[in-house]
Amino acid sequence: MSALITARNLSKRYGKKLALDQASFEIQPGRIVGLIGPNGSGKTTTLKAILGLTQFEGELSVLGMDPSKQRDALMNEVCFIADVAILPRWLKVKDAIDFVEGVHPRFNREKAERYLKHTKLEPSMKVKAMSKGMIVQLHLALVMAIDAKLLVLDEPTLGLDILYRKQFYQNLLEDYFDENKTIIITTHQIEEVENLLTDLMFIRDGKITLAASMEEIGDRYTEVMVEPQFINAASALAPMTQRSVFGKAVMLFDGASRAQLEKFGEIRTPSVADLFVATMKGSYE
């Protein structure tokens, strides 16, 4: 199967700052990819390159197109959403539908209106009269009515309470995603998207430091709650990180044999958040 997105040696400078540094990766169709990194790591620049919003050095193909040269054609196949909590307060539901219908050729008005019938949103209702939950529902109606092959979400639930964040992702998974669509998500709320992801990419200082499927991550990384008598033996295997939980040493290993690690104590696959902290060690210093 051909990759939906292929990047080779992407680089981008803003003045003296290198925002992307020879970044290379592939994203296959029908995947949900988490692009995770600290502030200033290159996440937004990567998305801008994919969306044709910035020039870059290197090679980039999105849906078989060069975003820097074929952006208009590309955007017919792409949907991009940032913070869903922000919409003009004067905007009416029907105006939002009219606008998206006018700018996106793959927008299905009937589908949006059909979804809205299951909500309390009325065509004449303005954003300023909506609860946060209603705003999420409006965004979902607009997104799910676009038959886009690629959906890019940049911190989409920033500013929303946890209840509405979970609602957004649950509806997205149940009502939008299928094997023909690909979703890229950037977020600081890693634990809330972990169960949605099929693939994970970490970016640091403009470099892709990890790109793997969740299955590969489960096979490669192991966290062990080490029994006291085995601490020295476990430490000899050079764990990535070690921390204390309830008085016990918890060590994270990359590539070590699970059969060997089981001798030291209880093992599990690390959470994305724990793996992120381990691989980004030093980014916040």
Outline:
The chain is α/β, with parallel strands linked by helices. The chain has two domains: 30-55 and 70-205, P-loop containing nucleotide triphosphate hydrolases (Rossmann fold), CATH 3.40.50; 217-279.
Describe the secondary structure blueprint for this structure:
Blueprint: E1 5-14, E2 17-27, E3 32-36, H1 43-50, E4 57-62, H2 71-75, E5 78-81, H3 93-103, H4 109-116, H5 132-144, E6 150-154, H6 162-175, E7 182-186, H7 190-193, E8 199-204, E9 207-213, H8 214-220, E10 221-226, H9 231-235, E11 241-245, E12 248-254, H10 258-261, E13 265-268, H11 272-279
Parallel strand pairs: 3-7, 3-8, 5-6, 6-7
Antiparallel strand pairs: 1-2, 1-4, 8-9, 10-12, 10-13, 11-12
Characteristics of this structure?
single chain, 285 residues, alpha/beta, Rossmann fold, 2 domains, six-stranded mixed sheet, 11 helices, 13 strands, globular
Explain what you see.
By secondary structure, the chain is α/β, with parallel strands linked by helices. The chain has 11 helices and 13 strands. The longest helix is centred in the middle third of the chain and has 14 residues, at 162-175. The strands form 3 sheets. A 6-stranded mixed beta sheet has the order 5-6-7-3-8-9. The radius of gyration is 21 Å and the shape is globular. The protein folds into 2 domains: 30-55 and 70-205, P-loop containing nucleotide triphosphate hydrolases (Rossmann fold), CATH 3.40.50; 217-279. It has helices at 43-50, 71-75, 93-103, 109-116, 132-144, 162-175, 190-193, 214-220, 231-235, 258-261, 272-279, and strands spanning 5-14, 17-27, 32-36, 57-62, 78-81, 150-154, 182-186, 199-204, 207-213, 221-226, 241-245, 248-254, 265-268. Strand 8 (199-204) and strand 9 form a beta hairpin. It starts with a strand and ends in a 6-residue tail after the last helix. Helix 5 packs parallel to helix 6.
